[in-house]
Specification:
By secondary structure, the protein is mainly alpha-helical. It is built from 12 helices and 2 strands.
Length: 250
């Protein structure tokens, strides 16, 4: 049987709660530059033979290179105010946060997804088959067997039966297979500063995310999750997870 986890503080609880659920994503994600297509040499020779030679013309001068705009969110007044708050209340390094927000990129597709109306909730017979497929049931059995000791401790501490926990994880992420591909930094910055309807909530989530990344010792840009910033095999909002970890630490 796996020995109980030892949790002595909010930070250590957060590390234990999340560390096993994050994958490392390598690679730059950059594609090689496209090469301009060239006309075949024979076609060029024929065109030259048929057309009279033209006097060479001077190419127009190239415009001067434009200076890149300030990267990410770092130059915005509302973001600078947010950084001031984190420095004042949580002791963050101002320059380090400025670099983090310089790397954050707005995601218009996330705003569009948040604003997409739900015309009609799906009916049980429409979505149940995918969650009751043999593959998902087998995944649930395997997860339960692998984590039986932890699930039993959770039931003893919180009164939540293992089958409920296992079912939720199966629905949310297929036991960790689909934890999300969005950079949490981009998603939460976009929703915190470019989505006024729920800006207050997502600024709180962004704050908790940066605290979590600091506790884990992980660069914020390395963590990925859902388009709403939920993380981990349970795909939970960060504030809820850190509250649960703090409760466990007490």
């Amino acid at each position: 049987m796996t020995p109980p986890l030892s949790v002595s503080s909010r930070s250590s609880a957060s590390r234990i709660f999340f560390r096993s659920h994050f994958a490392t994503f390598g690679g730059s994600g950059l594609s090689p530059p496209l090469l301009a297509a060239k006309a075949p040499a024979s076609a060029t020779a024929k065109a030259t033979a048929k057309s009279p030679a033209k006097a060479p013309t001077k190419s127009p001068p190239k415009p001067p290179a434009r200076k890149p705009a300030a990267a990410g969110y770092a130059a915005r007044a509302d973001v600078r105010s947010f950084i001031d708050e984190l420095v004042r209340e949580h002791g963050f390094d101002r320059a380090a946060l400025a670099r983090v927000f310089a790397a954050a990129r707005p995601q218009p597709k996330i705003i569009a997804a948040m604003q997409r109306p739900l015309l009609e909730p799906p009916k049980w017979h429409e979505y149940a088959p995918s969650f009751l497929s043999p593959a998902r049931v087998a995944g649930g059995v395997a997860f339960w067997n692998a984590h039986a000791a932890e699930l039993a401790r959770a039931e003893a501490a919180f009164g939540v039966p293992p089958e409920v926990v296992v079912a939720i994880l199966g629905v949310e992420t297929f036991y960790g297979r689909n934890t999300g591909s969005h950079r949490a930094l981009d998603a939460l910055s976009t929703l915190a500063f470019d989505y006024p309807r729920r800006a207050a909530f997502f600024r709180g989530e962004l704050k908790q995310f940066l605290l979590l990344a600091r506790d884990l010792g992980t660069p914020p840009a390395a963590l990925k999750g859902s388009f709403a910033g939920a993380l981990g095999v349970q795909r939970v909002q960060i504030s809820a997870a850190r509250l649960a970890a703090a409760h466990k630490a007490r």
